[in-house]
Design goal:
The chain is an alpha/beta fold and about 200 residues long. The chain has a single domain, classed as 3-Layer(aba) Sandwich (Rossmann fold). The chain contains nine helices and six strands; from the N terminus they run βααααβαβαβαβαβα. Strands 3-2-1-4-5-6 form a six-stranded parallel sheet, sandwiched between helices.
Amino acid sequence: MHDTTALLLCDLQNDFIHPDGAYGRAGQSAPAIAALPARLKPLADALRAKGGWIVSTHFTLVPGKGGEPFIADHLRALRPFLCKGDFAPGSWGHGLVDNLAPSDLAVEKLGYDAFWNTRLEWVLRRAGVRRLLVAGIVTNGGVASTVRGAHVREFDVTVLEDGCAAFTDALHQAAIEGLRPVAGMTTVAAAIAALG
C-alpha cells in the first residue's frame, strides 16, 4: 500500500528556503516556511523506509537568450528582486533543500499548479502512485493549486496541515479551510503514525 503513496513536496527549494537563496538574499522569508524541512524530514525518512515515493516540484524560471529568465508580469511585480540565475534548471537554488533530498521524482513547474504544463501526472501514474500527501509552500499558492489539480485528476489527496506554510498564518489558515472540500487533512505526526 505504501508503494502507491507519495509525499509531494511543493517547491521546497534552496532559492525559496535557504538563507543564501533568491528569497533569503532578498529578506523574503517567514519562520513557518523556514521550519518546514526539519518538520517534514522524519516523515520523508519513514515513507522512504516503507517503500513510498518522495516527489518534489521545482518552480522554474526558464532561461531565454543570454540566460535571462522568462518572468511572468505578475511575478515580476510581486517579486522584483528575481534575476538571472534564480530558479534556473539544474542550479543549486533550483534544487530540493539538502535535508529532504534526494527525491525519487523531480518535476519542473512553471506556474502555481504543478500539474499545469508538466509531466507530473505522467510520472505519478507510471510510478503507480494513487495517494498524495501534500506538503510545501506556499499554502495559498502552489500548494492550493496543486491540491486542486490532483483532486480533479482523481488522486486520493491529503494535505499535511502543519507540513505547509505561507508568508502569514492568516493566509495559511484561509487556504487550509478552502481546501477541506477537495482534500483530506492530517498532521505530520499523524501521517508518520499511520505508516506504522
